[in-house]
Amino acid sequence: MSQSPDSVLTSAATPSRAPYSAPDRFVADAPRSDVVSLKGVGKTFPNGVTPIAGFDLTIRRGETLTLLGPSGCGKSTVLRLISGLTEPTAGAIDWADPAARRNIGFVFQDPTLLPWASVFDNVYLPLRLAGRSRAESRETVMTALARVGLADFARALPRELSGGMKMRCAIARAFITRPALVLMDEPFAALDEVTRCKLNDGLVALKEELGATIVFVTHSIFESAFLSTRILVMSRAHGAPVAEIAIDPATTRDDDYRMSEAFTQITRRASTALRAAMGETA
Ligand SMILES: Nc1ncnc2c1ncn2[C@@H]1O[C@H](COP(=O)(O)OP(=O)(O)OP(=O)(O)O)[C@@H](O)[C@H]1O
């Protein structure tokens, strides 16, 4: 039912709230700066293994957060919990926008491309699943392929691509729906160092262009220092963080940065924290 101008005036003129109530309402309506928050989250698998317990983590909008830690400390479990692929057995996962949890991009170490489908159709797949026709998606898919340098390979099959190209295809697919959050689980671990550096550069450019929020799992200290705006070093003690390293988001991530003193300092801090997480002293 629409209000008459009079009733609007009346309600505005009648002090129905105590003085200074407006700022409270403003705070309550303010957009959240996080995408999702894990609050006291625990995961116990049926075999009794509890990689994660009492885990708190807030993923902030626009950040690239790297989870670094020894093998088995629960990094992939955290990604799976955020994605909804597995359910927490304790605590809560609180989304700022519940619709965002249905639009998450995921990139695994294995590019998981459909072998019988072209590069174009692999990247088109999430749009197809969302009910968009191939014709109306054409421009979006071709733009996504151009962003990752695969525009000339739209008709190629995955078997015709190198490992790095397959991963670029998987990344284009993960970003095609402009997800609120992209989860990346050791995506470049199987690639050689040169290809890995190139893909790191490409991911930085893609993120700059699309402004995505990324949670990235890696074993590489160098990769974490290059990509992240924040590194969380986790321990085997149910994933408990041993260190959090912030990196200025305004840092230009290029070859000069890779050679810089700032980069060296971050890798040194991450390395010390990782040794502590593994129970070694520096
Ligand atoms: N579905 C499952 N059932 C039982 N145990 C599991 C399951 N998934 C993971 N685990 C166990 O939980 C622990 C954490 O696994 P997770 O894969 O999250 O660690 P990670 O830090 O990502 O390890 P890595 O760096 O080696 O990939 C491991 O001990 C693993 O064996």
Automatic annotation (TrEMBL):
Keyword ATP-binding appears in the UniProt entry: yes
PROSITE patterns (alphabetical): ABC_TRANSPORTER_2
Family annotation (SUPFAM superfamilies): P-loop containing nucleoside triphosphate hydrolases (SSF52540)
Residue intervals of the ABC transporter domain: 36-261
Compositionally biased residues, Polar residues: 1-14
Keyword line: ATP-binding, Nucleotide-binding, Transport
InterPro entries for the chain: AAA+_ATPase (IPR003593), ABC_transporter-like_ATP-bd (IPR003439), ABC_transporter_ATP-bind (IPR050166), P-loop_NTPase (IPR027417)
Gene Ontology terms for molecular function: ATP binding; ATP hydrolysis activity
Residue segments, region Disordered: 1-24
Family designation: Belongs to the ABC transporter superfamily.
PANTHER family with a match to the protein in the record: ALIPHATIC SULFONATES IMPORT ATP-BINDING PROTEIN SSUB 2, TAURINE IMPORT ATP-BINDING PROTEIN-RELATED
UniProt name for this protein: Nitrate/sulfonate/bicarbonate ABC transporter ATP-binding protein
Protein's organism: Methylocystis echinoides
